[in-house]
């Protein structure tokens, strides 16, 4: 739907609401995609949205509700009556219920739980008790469950019944009388089986599953590795308690990538979107690393102070400091970026450290050599005030620091994993500070040992 | 499957191969998950793998083949006969065929195409002709297709037939006699319909689709936005030519995140994994930006050279340069990181630039103020050789550069989008160089205007 289509529809929507054209309103919502319509509802006033909610079929308004922002959900919940809330709860998947309740203020959670039925309340409380970012916290309890002794025709009948509320029917899960997970069956297989085949005989038993306490990342990795669209979740007693579907995994993958990107750039991760996050929260997520990195720069300051005399005699030397620091920082970041990402994607394991070193040494040598040479040419062309000896020393420093930076950049993330730390947080922001110090030390050592004695 | 399980299975596998225990080999492969088994096959020698291939049922060996690395695929293809290759092609999904052919050297592509049937050859050539990273290049042509006038029972029969080769049966697509896409139907709806219902009456017509020429990212965005597990792909005549399933979208999302992370850290994107990429390719992907950034550092060198006299008189001033540059770089990177990611996730549009500025100004003010204050304390505690006036000027510089860096960092990515450039490439690596120069200029201006006249 493009913007002009949206505007026309919005006008129609507002007209229907103003003139209370109930039938037409329902028809519009039937005709268009619910995701697109929820974008329009998000732009309505709370009163208008409330009218829409009370007018539409419960299934439709519940689905729309699940696509609204947390703020909008909050203001609607405040105005809805108990029975209305209950009917929304009835029509939402369990993971969507948990999703929106988690973001509500305490008084509204109470209002919601009061409106829920006894069994709903127990279920919600149980789901809310799983740790954040665990498989349990993102799973849905709406899935298709079969028994080993079911015949195919009984199974199809069960799918038909349970499928009305299940998040997916692509996989059916087979459990025993104690709810222990015994096998699974792609629904597709039911299509090709004989009506009197027994599920036990045709089900797959090479089970792929996660536990409620596993990190959501593990669920994401399994789903990607095995090319499946849903994964069962079992509790400590191996009983099937839920499933995680691939649409939730898409969110997990995006979240994890965002988190890594933020950590690598010295930001304490924020889960909300940029626009939703307030200034104070944003400030807090940034200031911590800025301060840590500024204070650790005391170290580079002390290196500079240590060589104050050299600098005061040969001021021209300070001209190259920004370039050397940037070159080292960039070279180190490149190496750490490649390693951090490869670790995150599971392509690389800490045991590969030797082959990483061997690869990075060769890359570093080539990069250092090229940069040293280009730097020499650059100085000779653009900076006539610099003599040949100094130019050579600066280029040598470029070569050495690029090599050092690449080694540090590729080693730190792997060390972080060995220390059971997140490589992105350990390695990302700290690399620049470390290689800056290395660049300065190298520079001043080469200058005092190789240059000054011969000037 | 854990490592010890894997080792035992590997031994069993090698035993079966050495003693040519065909039946047992087949049973092992039937018992375990094909993804796990393909990991084991990847570790076999080519001769062993070849024996496995010739022994297993064609469906199984084809599936195993699709999970092997490109190198392994290449060495196997070289040894397989024409009919064997054809049977692999028959049993692979079209997107997997294209995937592996794209990576083969020209002589092997010829070998493969010669082994393919006439219709296969035409199909492969057509799929190979789509531009890299377009929706056409990742789509599969194996989907379930119905006609508007089909009854539900006819439709179920068609699903049963076409479903054997289709990538997914979760959605059926309805086309007219000219293959134009008219609607879609979740398979689940067929379960609840009456046998003599007409498809036309029950299908959904709010079509979500992409075109073959659209970027794969658009397919990823649509699938995420509308929470669907497959999206149809149409050509310029609106005819249905393929579908993209969510498992391929998982790869796209990971690829795009990796690409952004690499671009933001001054690396020309590499699609292969870290271990698969050779030293020369890695060198090429890194050296370009290193050189660009080093040469652009000539600019910061010139600023330093311009104030050479000031630096030679007050050497202590140079001690703060590394810290100022790092603080500016970090502050700028934080802002650009948040904006680049929000743009990539579609949470932020260039039209939001004013609210971004208003938010960043306030964050910058808070961060700058905190850092300026902490810096003052830091100097007073750790650096007794620095006088109060200089400390104040340095802290003022921290405040101003942090503010400038945040504004530049948040503006550049948005400008990049307006110029139809990738924000990650325009903004990421360049930000540090730009804010470094800004930090130096600010520092020397404040020093010459506010400090030196009063010393």
Describe this structure in words.
- 2 copies of one chain form a homodimer.
- Chain A is mainly alpha-helical and 455 residues long.
- Chain A has 3 domains: 3-129, Alpha Horseshoe (MgtE N-terminal fold); 144-245, CBS-domain; 297-454, SLC41 divalent cation transporters, integral membrane domain (Tetracycline Repressor, domain 2), CATH 1.10.357.20.
- Chain A is built from 23 helices and 6 strands.
- Chain A has helices spanning 3-18, 22-31, 34-43, 46-55, 58-67, 70-79, 82-91, 94-102, 106-115, 118-128, 135-138, 152-162, 187-192, 199-202, 216-225, 246-264, 279-296, 298-306, 308-313, 321-344, 353-382, 388-418, 423-451, and strands spanning 144-147, 171-175, 181-186, 210-211, 230-234, 240-245.
- In chain A, the strands form 2 sheets. Chain A has a 3-stranded mixed β-sheet with strand order 1-2-3. In chain A, strands 4-5-6 form a 3-stranded mixed β-sheet.
- In chain A, a hairpin with a 5-residue loop joins strand 5 and strand 6 (240-245).
- In chain A, helix 22 (388-418) runs antiparallel to helix 23 (423-451).
- The first copy, chain A, is elongated.
- Chain A starts with a helix and ends with a helix.
């Amino acid at each position: 739907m493009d913007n002009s289509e949206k505007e026309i529809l919005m006008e129609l929507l507002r007209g229907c609401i103003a003139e209370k054209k109930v039938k037409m309103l329902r028809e519009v919502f039937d005709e268009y995609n619910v995701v697109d319509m929820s974008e329009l509802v998000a732009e309505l006033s709370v009163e208008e949205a409330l009218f829409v909610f009370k007018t539409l079929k419960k299934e439709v308004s519940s689905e729309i509700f699940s696509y609204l922002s947390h703020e909008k959900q909050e203001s609607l919940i405040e105005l809805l009556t108990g029975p209305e809330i209950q009917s929304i709860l009835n029509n939402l998947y369990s993971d969507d219920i948990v999703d929106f309740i988690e973001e509500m203020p305490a008084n509204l959670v109470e209002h919601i739980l009061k409106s829920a039925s006894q069994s709903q309340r127990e279920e919600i409380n149980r789901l809310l008790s799983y740790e954040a970012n665990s498989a349990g916290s993102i799973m849905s309890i709406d899935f298709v469950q079969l028994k080993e002794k079911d015949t195919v025709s009984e199974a199809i009948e069960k799918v038909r019944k349970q499928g009305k509320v299940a998040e997916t029917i692509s996989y059916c899960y087979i459990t025993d009388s104690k709810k222990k997970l015994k096998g699974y069956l792609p629904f597709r297989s039911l299509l090709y089986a004989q009506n009197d085949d027994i599920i036990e005989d045709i089900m797959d038993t090479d089970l792929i599953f996660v536990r409620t306490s596993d990190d959501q990342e593990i669920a994401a990795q399994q789903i990607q590795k095995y090319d499946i669209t849903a994964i069962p979740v079992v509790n400590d007693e191996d009983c099937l308690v839920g499933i995680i579907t691939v649409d939730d995994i898409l969110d997990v993958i995006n979240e994890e990538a965002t988190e890594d990107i933020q950590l690598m750039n010295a930001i304490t991760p924020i889960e909300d979107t940029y626009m939703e996050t307030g200034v104070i929260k944003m400030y807090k997520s940034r200031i911590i690393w800025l301060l840590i990195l500024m204070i650790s720069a005391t170290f580079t300051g002390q290196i500079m102070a240590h060589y104050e005399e050299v600098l005061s005699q040969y001021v021209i030397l300070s001209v190259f400091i920004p370039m050397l620091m940037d070159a080292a920082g960039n070279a180190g970041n490149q190496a750490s970026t490649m390693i951090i990402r490869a670790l995150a994607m599971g392509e690389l394991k800490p045991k590969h450290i030797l082959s990483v070193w061997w690869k990075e040494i060769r890359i570093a040598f080539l990069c250092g050599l090229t940069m040293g040479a280009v730097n020499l040419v650059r100085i000779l062309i653009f900076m006539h005030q610099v003599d040949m000896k100094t130019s050579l020393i600066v280029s040598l420093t470029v070569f050495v620091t690029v090599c050092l930076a690449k080694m540090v950049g590729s080693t730190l993330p792997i060390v972080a994993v060995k220390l059971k730390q997140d490589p992105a947080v350990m390695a990302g922001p700290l690399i620049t500070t470390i290689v800056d110090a290395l660049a300065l030390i190298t520079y001043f050592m080469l200058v005092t040992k190789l240059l000054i004695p011969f000037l």
